[in-house]
């Protein structure tokens, strides 16, 4: 599925900055088939090589990075978000503009790492979060996670029959229960990753 990212994959910073506006517009369009709203305040972005490379490229732009050692460090950190052959990778965002409401929601959703699933056909696959926050009274607003896929789930996602798919993300936290189906465009995009 995803191959590694190296420094050679990055566009030189002056070149990137020249074409950045156009690249941003392309990525906004591309992410529409990879991002889904799970609820009013929660969204999920399914990551792949393109989205991770974009994050690294934006980081080099925002922090004006050109030192090869620093670039390699960031590439190493972000490469952990690349999905493996039998998994989907995602970033979960808890998005509330009001800081007080956000703090309250992050406290309410402590333990969210144990309550997120991907339903694929008859299989309910639990998300594996990069970090667990059981040692404090709140969770974080951004989570990196993977959905390990069985061979049956992988075949279900890649069979090309999207209009009859039963694929949904489920959150069954004691303080918040949500379910949202993946649309045909989401599934088609993920199927390309898994092919």
Task: Write up this protein.
- InterPro entries: DUF3501.
- Pfam families: DUF3501.
- It is a single chain.
- The chain has 195 residues and is an alpha+beta fold.
- The protein has two domains: 1-32 and 49-82, no CATH class; 34-47 and 84-195, Immunoglobulin-like, CATH 2.60.40.
- It is built from six helices and nine strands, in the order αββααβαββββαββα.
- The strands form two sheets. The protein has a five-stranded antiparallel sheet with strand order 1-2-3-7-6. A four-stranded antiparallel sheet has the order 5-4-8-9.
- The chain is globular.
- The termini are close together.
- The mean pLDDT is 91.
The structural class is alpha+beta
> If you average the pLDDT, what whole number results?
91
Share of helix among residues? 25-40%
Largest sheet at a glance? 5 strands, antiparallel
InterPro entries: DUF3501
Pfam family, one: DUF3501
Task: Spell out the blueprint of helices and strands.
Layout: H1 13-32, E1 35-37, E2 42-47, H2 49-62, H3 68-79, E3 87-94, H4 99-108, E4 116-120, E5 123-126, E6 128-129, E7 142-148, H5 151-158, E8 167-173, E9 176-181, H6 184-194
Antiparallel strand pairs: 1-2, 2-3, 3-7, 4-5, 4-8, 6-7, 8-9
